[in-house]
Amino acid sequence: MMTAQQWNQQQRSYNRNYGIDVTPKTGSHKSSEITAADKKRMIMLVLVIGLICIGMVISSAFVASVTYQNNQLKASNEALQSEVDTLQTKLDGATNTSTIAVKASKSLGMIYPSGKKYVQLTTADTPKDNFAGLLKKQAFD
Predict the structure, then answer these.
(1) Confidence of residue 24 (pLDDT cuts 50, 70, 90)
(2) At a CB cut-off of 8 Å and minimum separation 6, what does 99 contact?
C-alpha cells in the first residue's frame, strides 16, 4: 500500500514526464451565486427559444395547410382529367364516320345517292350575287 507522500511524489513525477497536472487545485473558488444580470440573460434566452419554437409551429401549420390545399387541387385535377377522357371517348365515338352514317339514315332518313339521285353543278350554276348572302337569306327566311 502506498502512503500519501509516496502518491504525491509519484504524481509530481508523472506530471514532469507527461505534462499533465492531476493534483487537486486548492485555491479560491468562484461563488456559484446567480446574479441579476445572469437571470435576465436566462429569461431572454428562454423567450428567444420560445419565440423560435412558436415560429416553427406556425410555419409547420402553414405548410400543412398548403399541402392539404395542394392535395385537394390534385384530386380535383384527377377528376377533371377523367371527365375529359370520358368526353374525348364519347366525342371520338360520335364523330366516327359509320356512327354518323347510321344516325343520318335512321334519324333523318338520309340515304346514299345512287345513279340519278345526285346533281352535278357547273360554273353556269353559280349565283351572280354574293353566294354566302344567298345561303344566309335562304337559311333564315
Answers:
(1) low
(2) 93
* Cα–Cα distance list, 40 to 13, 47, 51, 126 (Å): 47, 11, 16, 102
What length is written for the chain? 141
pLDDT digits (tens, 9 = 90+) for 71-123: 999 999 999 999 999 999 988 888 888 888 888 888 888 877 776 766 677 77
- Its pTM stands at 0.44
Is residue 99 within 8 A of residue 93, CB to CB? The reply is: yes
The CA distance from 13 to 18, in Å, is 9
Residue written as cell 514532469?
Answer: 16
* Secondary structure E strands in 16-115: none
The radius of gyration of the chain from alpha carbons, rounded to an integer in Å, stands at 49
Enter the C-alpha cell of residue 98. Answer: 359509320
Quickly tell me which residue has 343520318 as its cell. 104
Cα–Cα distance measured from residue 118 to residue 124, given in angstroms and rounded to the nearest whole number:
17
Taking Cα atoms as reference points, which of 12, 41, 108 lies closest to residue 4? 12
